[in-house]
């Protein structure tokens, strides 16, 4: 059967499934149920619908799919590589626009997340992605959210057009190291990817400057740009990944670096691992990302929390791991310490620190006051001083990790029958 003759629903199923490896949004899992047999009402199938989260915590539903899963590249880790034996499909830009509008009018989604394999060449594919967004914005005055995955080796002029229609653009670095990219994605070039990200950064900066000077200057990628790294496909350790992410934030002013744990794919290349890394590793990298972005840690300090192989511990979070290694920085006086020191206390989040700074202007804080601001006061006790608490010899205990680390068995009891 020719791809063009496949029904829209069948192509949607193929291309929505092919997009699941993009990690820039997350979907919740549930049992598959539908009412197609005429019984009941509702469905959990929702092909192509995923969920992302706004900075204020709102959950945003997106139509997430590929324009096509045909690809002229042969990246070893990609299920859609040209040598892969997968069912292929393709949408035209107008079809994606029609689907987006149809889903939006039925209140299924609030926006579009669109990526693509490379068909013909990078310029042609990028033109198709931009055309999809242009149809939505210009012909239908679509005001929902649009996220476009751009192609780094496409013509810079075409890539820059993406920011005129998309809220966010992203250019994937794919792998943390240049050596890993050369080995697993020989068609891609790390220098070209960095160059494309820098070009997009300059376009965003120029547009912001223009809007300050000219009231009617167009908005350009107002949600900025992001990127994605695959974790566990090559030999890069956590310290290398954290350092690479920190460099990307500094050089290209990224809004987010997303991590995607490598998942074994059908007919996989022999150079790939046979097993996926533990998902908790991906989680620890996200926690490290937050330490750098919101808690004042440098990438070098996060790397200090890793073991001698450069891997972050899986049983405790990186902030706690750092505190256990550098106990000389503790205890921290809750009534006198600056914000920077409070942010390094395990168990205290940014909101809790802000509340402590506000409350201590009016009264002297006791341990019970701080207990209301954290999930586990037991976790922070060894690392803080309060009006009625001083951890005498606590931070020097050899078994401190056992005291403050999460009790997995106790947590499981919450779900016991």
Automatic annotation (TrEMBL):
Sample GO molecular function, one term: metal ion binding
Keyword S-adenosyl-L-methionine tagged: yes
Family annotation (InterPro entries): Aldolase_TIM, DNA_rSAM_put, Elp3/MiaA/NifB-like_rSAM, Endo/Exo/Phosphatase_dom_1, rSAM, rSAM_sf, RuvA_2-like
Domain Radical SAM core: 55-298
Any matching Pfam family: Fer4_12
CC cofactor: [4Fe-4S] cluster
Protein name: Putative DNA modification/repair radical SAM protein
Keyword terms: Iron, Iron-sulfur, Metal-binding, S-adenosyl-L-methionine
CDD domains, sorted: Radical_SAM
Species assigned in the record: Qipengyuania algicida
